[in-house]
Every structure is written in structure tokens, then in C-alpha cells.
Amino acid sequence: MSGLKVEIAHLPEVQHALHDAAARLAPAFVQAAGVARRLLVAELTKYPAPLPGSTYVRTFRLRRGWERASGITGGGGFQLINAVPYAPAVQGDAQRPGFRGRWEPASRIAYRLQEEVMAAYEDAVQEALS
Prior knowledge:
Blueprint: H1 11-44, H2 61-65, E1 69-71, E2 78-80, H3 87-91, H4 106-112, H5 114-129
Antiparallel strand pairs: 1-2
Helix pairs in contact: 1-5
């Protein structure tokens, strides 16, 4: 009785090369996440000009709220969370009427910057693998 045999040549070498590439990519992803966070925070912390005649003194608490980021388990990205209680009213998707049209929502900023964020990751990967 004859049988069928399939051989995969050089599999250990391929596995080793992939393991080495993955080891080089992990720090590249961390570096790219840092670049992406800086890009996003720079835009998220911009304040519009004060309303004409306004006497409100800004505390910049909302701006400081964007200065923290947490990694997503497994190196898959990061989250920017603004814990300031009124952040959703000012920069959330359901902005209060007084902020609509003056403050760009955080989701729109993230969408607007997505090409730059992806470029940061692509650049980091290219550098790591070259």
C-alpha cells in the first residue's frame, strides 16, 4: 500500500526568522504608540478662542485630562481617556449645545489623524525590519 507524504522543508528556519521579526516589532509598536499619542494629545488639548466678552477664567483642567494614556494588553494599541467629569459634554460625540461647533469632538480628531497615526506605525515597522 502506498501512502502520501508531505514534507515542509526549512520550517524551523522560517519559524526562527518570524520569531526574530516579532521580537524587533514589539519595541517598534511601543515607539509608534508614543508618536501616535503625542499627535493625538497635541490636537485634543487645543482650546478654541474664548467667546467675545466672556469673563470665564479657564482652568485648563480638560487639557490636563488628556495627558494620560494606558496601553492595551498585548501591545495592540493604547487608550486615551479623559477622566474630567465634563469632558463628554465638551469633546464627546454628544456635545452640549454651547460647545458644538467650537470644540472639535475627540472622535473626529482621531478620525482626522488616522492616516498620520497609521504612518507612524508603518514607519516604525519598516525601520524595525530593515
